[in-house]
TrEMBL record:
Residues 1-27 form the signal peptide. Gene3D superfamilies: YVTN repeat-like/Quinoprotein amine dehydrogenase. Residues 288-298 have a biased composition (Low complexity). Residues 273-287 have a biased composition (Gly residues). InterPro entries: WD40/YVTN_repeat-like_dom_sf. This is WD40 repeat domain-containing protein. Keywords: Signal. It comes from the Bacteria. It comes from Streptomyces phyllanthi. Residues 268-299 are annotated as: Disordered.
Length: 327
């Protein structure tokens, strides 16, 4: 993209933001607000099974090897974990809970679209006591069988412990499966196993492992896990957020929590299709060809306002990314 496109992008963003400000916003359906001023780019979210009501999150990019335990009843950070044994994080984008109360952190982002030959996953035990502490993590080197790529979604199956990554592609991404057991001494090659019809910014397994949910900036898709041969079954009611890049199921599977970047950002709860038992949803949304539109709760004007605000930001982000790639 030529540099003369920058004024156009800025102008378009201004028009969209002006239009958005003229309409009321959609109300939250519940959740909590992240009150810790250190959390400015919450890019991952994972519900603790060991500590009810606690959610783990982290900042985007190279903020440091930190995890924050947030109490959903107050929005306050109740513990900060500093990971050791992992070097300097590069672009941390995701966190997921595995079997045995193991936390997996995905240092898997690549804003330059696949320039890094490898990325990293960190694994550590969830602390039994919630207090500020240092925990040694295991670092795994990860490569993709079909070449480097950007990704923001890391999901650990709650029953098998196998790790999956969904890459971030504007034209629709792919689901990658890691080895049955990750190796700390060698390279872990992730292989493509399925297409994902979304520009994915995060994903999560249902607690029973029977569903895989993925989200993007404008919507989400629910898949039947089907032993890894995913089948699309429904559309997700994803809230319109400024830069929505995180999601997790509640521990009972009844709701999905959606987070976004930004200081003092809001984590919003939405009912999970199928409820806590992971049963088939009665909704016919899964037959739709596109999941990028939110089925929505609230007024049409609110939806339009949120959508315009998000689009305005993404227009600039997308344009700058293209510009940087081609300059």
């Amino acid at each position: 993209m030529p540099r003369r496109s920058l004024p156009f992008l800025a102008g378009l963003a201004g028009v969209l933001l002006a239009a958005a400000s003229a309409a009321p916003a959609v109300a939250d359906d519940g959740g909590f607000t992240l009150k810790d001023p250190r959390i400015t780019e919450s890019s991952g979210l994972a519900a603790s099974r060991q500590h009810p009501g606690i959610y783990w999150t982290h900042n985007d990019s190279d903020d440091g090897a930190y995890l924050y335990a947030v109490d959903s009843r107050t929005g306050e950070t109740v513990a900060t974990v500093t990971m050791t044994g992992v070097g300097a994080p590069r672009d941390v984008e995701a966190v997921s809970m595995g079997p045995g109360n193991r936390i997996y952190v995905g240092d898997i982002g690549d804003n330059l679209g696949g320039t890094w030959d490898y990325v990293w996953i960190y694994e550590l035990p969830e602390p039994k006591q919630l207090k500020d502490q240092t925990i040694r993590a295991t670092q795994y080197v990860v490569k993709y069988a079909d070449g480097a790529r950007d990704a923001e979604a890391l999901m650990v199956h709650p029953k098998t412990g196998r790790v999956y990554i969904a890459d971030k592609n504007e034209d629709g991404g792919s689901l990658y499966e890691g080895p049955a057991e990750l190796s700390a001494s060698g390279t872990n090659v992730f292989k493509r196993v399925a297409a994902v019809d979304l520009w994915v910014t995060d994903g999560a397994f249902s607690p029973d492992g029977k569903r895989l949910a993925v989200r993007g900036y404008f919507g989400g898709i629910l898949y039947d896990w089907n032993g890894g041969k995913i089948k699309r079954v429904d559309r997700l009611s994803v809230p319109l957020q400024g830069q929505g890049e995180s999601m997790t199921y509640t521990t009972d599977g009844a709701e999905i929590m959606y987070g976004t970047e930004g200081e003092g950002s809001r984590v919003v709860a939405r009912e999970a299709p199928g409820g806590g038992d992971g049963s088939d949803s009665a909704s016919g949304g899964g037959s739709s060809d596109s999941a990028q539109g939110d089925s929505g709760d609230g007024t049409n004007s609110g939806i339009k306002a949120g959508a315009l605000a998000v689009v305005a930001g993404l227009v600039v982000v997308w344009g700058l990314k293209r510009l940087l790639r081609r300059s």
